[in-house]
Amino acid sequence: MNKAYEYLMNENIKYGDVVVVACSGGPDSMALLHLMYMIKKAIDIEVICAHVNHNTGRPGQKEEQEFVEKYCRNHNLIFETMIIEDYGDDNFHNEARSKRYNYFGKLVKKYSAKYLLTAHHGDDLIETILMRIVRGSTLRGYSGFSKEIEIDGYKILRPLIEVTKEEILEYNKNNKVPFEQDISNTKDVYTRNRFRKYIVPEFRKEDKNVHTKFYKFSKTLLEYNNYIDKQVEKIIPKVYPQNILNIEEFMKLENVIAMKVIYYILENIYQDDLMLITDHHAEIIYNLIISKKPNVYIYLPNNLKAIKTYNNLTFVQEEIKEKQYEIEIIDYLNLPNGKNIEVLKISDETDNNICRLSKNDVKFPLRVRTRMNGDKMFIKGMLGSKKVNDIFIDNKISTKERDMWPIVVDSDNVIVWLPGLKKSKFDKQKNDKCDIIMKYY
Hints:
- By secondary structure, the chain is an alpha+beta fold.
- The chain has helices at about 1-10, 25-45, 60-75, 90-110, 120-135, 140, 165-175, 190-205, 210-240, 245-250, 255-270, 280-290, 390-395, 400-405, and strands spanning about 20, 45-55, 80-85, 115, 150, 155, 245, 295-300, 305-310, 310-315, 325-330, 330-335, 340-345, 355, 365-370, 375, 385, 405-410, 415-420, 420-425, 435-440.
- Strand 18 and strand 19 form a beta hairpin.
């Protein structure tokens, strides 16, 4: 933690500064809050503790809020909190993150703060980089996250980026810093938890200071990415004027620059939400551009639509009507109805909660959406199609549940699975070759 303290005291925080600290009540953010409390005592700064109650129904969230509030009261820190009252129909984790940072930004402006501090640490960086390598990402995405980000007139600082989880826990123990534990951080259903529990420890066995190597790797990638971006920025006005891609000019570029233009566009659209984007998205955008079809479109995460119209390609954020959603399936989805869809490597299950599909039969990428008028499905083992509404009636699904029930479709909007209820004729047998296995739970 000494590195974090020196970084803040020597490079950033000055007498009289106002800082906002994002604090969940967990060991990492409480260590950071305590560190800022010590700096406050040393040079008289104002510390605003920003807590978000995600209100997901998980036990203990109200108690976590009260715990952080009490700590702030006892240490003369300003406490601010927000309860997320409802969620829309987007990817849950991304929407929660977006609401958090919007809230933090409002607090920064309210208190005229200079910095927003988050407790992302060295182990988080390792996990993020490895997850993006496995999923595929952009050059900037592979770098994980930055130590400093300039945004809307203030800086986001991640002072613990060179600190390990073990060092944080040791700091809390030595300084008697209390914290709450979120039990969801131990569940293997979440991809990050699996990397945290099973993969990162193996790297530590090879080198206990491996986090420093990942941090150097991250900084190197960012430096290269920033240099290439400067070259791309020189051609963007000609290739991508007024946020419209000129396909004729785009096709004149060398492939490496052409792909970087696509990544540049995606990075500017998704910014710090790059976990949603993989190299797969860049590839399908490129294939859309070179397609001989004059009018065609594809869906991207966050309800973004890429539309090709003759010589132009545009990106449009679609408005989602109440009780409707449409999300691309990548690895794991937390659905608006409270259920999940996860992509698995293997499974022995064969019930209606499991679906196996082949690219030879359906067109990837797959999406999950709510029902539409006239939806029909070719049910496995049956001749002809059946209305989805009739399937709901047969299974005694209430009208309210029908509105939010997930329907998995391919890129041609063909229904390939009704999770938990029916499989389509495209479902493969357990021992058949398939390209994707999905589980609904």
